[in-house]
From TrEMBL:
InterPro entries reported for this sequence: Trans_hexapeptide_repeat, Trimer_LpxA-like_sf
Organism for this UniProt entry: Candidatus Falkowbacteria bacterium RIFCSPHIGHO2_02_FULL_45_15
Protein name: Acetyltransferase
């Protein structure tokens, strides 16, 4: 991971709190990880300031999580990020959410759980999947291998591999080239 001198000299998050952490990992000191014992991070990862993470996370290799990213889901929620994936600044990943159909109350302090209905489903980034700035992803979505979601989009359903999505809700725009990415990943020791 190539970091500039300013990043390397910046205070970092105490990585000893994490379930596991690989090599060449930068985590800004200005992050909040609520359940650090449920978070595993691979190699060559950079996590910028402003991350707010409340759920389990399995983060692979060669990953960047940009500034101001929010990932929620509580102790039962799960985010899985395959190798070579990224979340750009300001994006929001919901691994859990209240159901808003009217047959329950929303989850707030003081409301008994039997009166609430929470949807808890993992959000999965298959390898090479990326989201651009200010994307929102709802519970249960799998981003197919190599798929990209354009800025300010809302993802409510799984994405197809190597496809670019945009809009609210996100819709396929066009196919994405994969040959060079796979070639470079192979040179780094990863196989198709």
């Amino acid at each position: 991971m190539s970091a500039d001198a300013g990043e390397l000299n910046s205070p970092q998050y105490d990585k000893s709190k994490l379930k596991s952490v690989g090599e060449d990992v930068f985590i800004s000191a200005q992050v909040e990880i609520r359940r650090s014992n449920l978070v595993s991070i691979g190699n060559h990862v950079a996590i910028d300031s402003g991350l707010y993470l409340t759920c389990q996370a399995e983060i692979g290799d060669y990953i960047h999580i940009g500034p101001g990213v929010i990932i929620i889901g509580g102790p039962k929620g799960l985010l899985q990020m395959g190798h070579f994936t990224n979340i750009a600044l300001g994006s929001k990943i919901l691994c859990a959410s209240d159901e808003f159909l009217g047959d329950s109350l929303i989850t707030t302090p003081g409301i008994p759980l039997e009166y609430t209905k929470v949807i808890i489903k993992p959000v999965i980034f298959e390898r090479f999947a990326n989201v651009c700035a200010n994307v929102v992803i709802l519970p249960g979505v799998t981003l197919g291998e190599g798929s990209v979601v354009g800025a300010c989009s809302l993802v409510t359903k799984d994405t197809e591999p190597w496809t670019i999505y945009v809009g609210i809700p996100a819709r396929p725009l066009k196919m994405r080239q994969k040959e060079k990415m796979l070639e470079y990943a192979k040179k780094l020791g990863y196989f198709n």
